[in-house]
Design a protein that fits this description.
This protein is an alpha+beta fold and 517 residues long. Among the domains are: 4-30 and 62-77 and 114-155 and 177-301, no CATH class; 363-451, no CATH class; 460-516, Orthogonal Bundle (Arc Repressor Mutant, subunit A), CATH 1.10.10.410. Helix content is 34%, strand content 18%. The chain is built from 15 helices and 14 strands. The strands form four sheets. It has an eight-stranded mixed beta sheet with strand order 3-4-7-2-8-9-10-11. Strands 1-12 form a two-stranded parallel sheet. A two-stranded antiparallel sheet has the order 5-6. Helix 12 crosses helix 14 (486-499) and helix 14 crosses helix 15 (506-516). The structure holds adenosine-5'-triphosphate and magnesium ion (2 copies). Residues 70, 183 line the site of one magnesium ion (MG).
Length: 517
């Protein structure tokens, strides 16, 4: 059946999405092409592809892959779009359904979805994101994907398949929940790129409070459109892999589909314009239904819904009732800081590497943890960054914990870094203290240092005696050192440190040893 149109955009004005993401301001990587050229369905040669599917052999044509996404994000709201039913994840099936949501007799028979598809709330935007290619930090590439449009629509119910009883059950809890659909232009070229763009959009939606965007809970679902073609030739026929709800599966599904299409075409087959789904157990895409070209959705306007009028301070009619109109400049003023801006500030303020700022924001709660450590420590920002991203995050990952579940508090880490900063402990002792902090919740770093006698040996006389004894025990090394072997001194420093259980400052030992010779 037909899908009515929800609303009408204010005539003569099309809203750019520039305010959703003003673009990455640290364009340090390889620049990407301009976004303005290229009609839909024509070559998107402006983008520098991250991968072309396979290195061509002599006499073979090169393939390029084209990926465009449709992203559906459930709008964070206590109620559905047009009914007062509540919205909760994992509520008992069919417990959050009003007559309207279920289209029970007496309400208009549905079988349609209310959508702004034809008159979207925003068009012609862009989303900037950075992709890592390879392992070196220098290989962080800044990219931009054009946003074709953003529209509001109703979510549909979901079916649950009971394979054992060969039954399909329907849960209408989701029916009528507000969805934000973001349609991206076919500017991407591999799974990794698509997954990174989706993660950036997810972070923006979460920062703005638009959607909780938890992919595992189905609050963010992606349809991936994929085609392959020879560079310079028109775009190929696309397939659409529906309802991907994890960034990893999205990347896998796309890369699988690119390879499948190339194999199919190389073997003389053809690509059908079909809808496919991703079998995450088998790691492959399988056909769902065929689209037979452009589907006719038979859109009709919804006469019961008044137009949604958007204005900015310039176009706002004098004397307009603030309750009746939406002034996007007012909304813009209330927007929180966007992730790209926060990252840029971290880079400017702390001299942080762009990839470190990315990691800090991509892990829920990690930025706040870092900032809280910074508040209480005198240690250099670089040192703090390294401890948070390597040691702390490493421990979390190893045990599969979220930042909020960490046994080490920001204050404890700050205190530890302060001990290190004023040379009360060595860096290897600091690692031991951290491990102990992780194991025994509630202990303070100072407590652990004194309990395990990890404090740095400061007593000059003791250190001198230790150096003397070590030199006497290892006359050969001393000889080597006298002969000018540069490695000999390091060997001696190592031996003295070992004798102190790593509790001596190597620069002090070096100074004493040099003096003694
Ligand atoms: N040749 C192509 N290869 C890959 N992706 C493409 C190609 N042409 C268009 N796309 C992408 O396909 C998507 C089209 O989405 P759109 O919502 O406009 O239509 P649809 O998929 O036909 O409709 P529906 O909402 O029913 O899925 C866009 O994300 C676009 O970037
Ligand atoms: Mg589609
Ligand atoms: Mg669509």
């Amino acid at each position: 059946m037909a899908a009515p149109v929800l609303c009408r955009l204010c005539p003569g004005r099309r809203w750019s999405l520039a305010y959703i993401n003003r673009g990455s301001r640290h364009e340090t990587g390889t620049p990407t092409g301009s976004r303005s050229s290229g009609k839909r369905g024509q070559s998107s040669g402006v983008q520098q592809p991250l991968i072309t599917a396979e290195k061509p052999r002599k006499g073979e044509h090169e393939w390029a892959a084209v990926v465009g996404l449709e992203i559906h994000a459930q709008i964070s709201s206590n109620s559905k779009l047009f009914s007062g039913s509540q919205v909760h994840f994992a509520a008992p099936p069919n417990s959050l359904v009003s007559f309207f949501d279920a289209s029970l007799p007496g309400t208009l028979p549905a079988g349609y979805q209310i959508t702004q598809q034809r008159l979207p709330i925003a068009v012609n935007g862009s989303l900037a994101y950075s992709v890592f290619v390879g392992k070196k930090p220098s290989q962080l590439i800044n990219k931009t994907v054009r946003i074709k449009q953003i529209q509001l629509e109703q979510d549909s119910g979901k079916s649950l398949h009971d394979d054992r009883r060969s039954q399909t059950l329907i849960d209408l809890n989701r029916a009528g929940v507000g969805l934000l659909e973001v349609v991206l232009e076919p500017d991407m070229s591999c799974g990794e790129e698509a997954a990174t763009a989706v993660k950036e959009l997810q972070l923006i939606l979460q920062t703005l409070g638009t959607s909780q965007a938890n992919m595992a809970e189905g609050q963010l679902r992606v349809d991936a459109n994929i085609s392959v073609h020879h560079p310079g030739e028109p775009l190929g026929v696309r397939t659409e892999v529906k309802n991907l709800n994890s960034a990893r599966f999205l990347a896998k599904a796309i890369d699988y589909e690119i390879q499948r299409q190339i194999n199919e075409l190389e073997n003389g087959g053809e690509i059908l314009n079909e809808t496919r789904s991703f079998d995450y157990k088998l790691g492959c895409t399988v056909p769902m239904r065929d689209k037979e070209g452009k589907q006719d959705y038979r859109f009709i306007p919804e006469p019961n819904l008044p137009p949604l009028l958007l204005y900015d301070s310039v176009s706002l009619p004098a004397g307009a009732d603030p309750q009746q109109v939406i002034d996007i400049d007012q909304i813009r003023k209330r927007l929180p800081e966007l992730p790209s801006v926060t990252r840029e500030k971290l880079i400017q303020q702390y001299g942080m590497l762009p990839e470190h700022s990315l990691t800090l924001l991509n892990e829920a709660g990690l930025l706040e943890f870092f900032q809280n450590v910074m508040k209480e420590t005198r240690a250099e920002p670089k040192k703090v960054t390294s401890w948070v991203l390597n040691t702390f995050l490493g421990f979390l990952k190893q045990q599969n914990l979220a930042v909020s579940e960490s046994p080490v508090t920001p204050s404890a880490l700050a205190e530890l870094l302060n001990l290190l900063d004023r040379k009360a402990i060595s860096s290897s002792a600091a690692k031991q203290v951290f491990e102990e902090l992780w194991r025994s919740k509630g202990k303070t770093p100072a407590h652990i240092v004194s309990e395990k006698e990890l404090g740095l040996l400061q007593d000059r006389e003791t250190l001198e005696q230790l150096c003397q004894a070590t030199m006497e025990e290892h006359p050969q090394v001393v000889m080597d050192m006298k002969k000018g072997n540069p490695r000999a001194i390091n060997k001696l420093i190592g031996l003295v440190r070992k004798a102190t259980l790593s509790r001596a400052d190597p620069t002090v030992i070096k100074e004493i040893l040099e003096k003694k010779l």
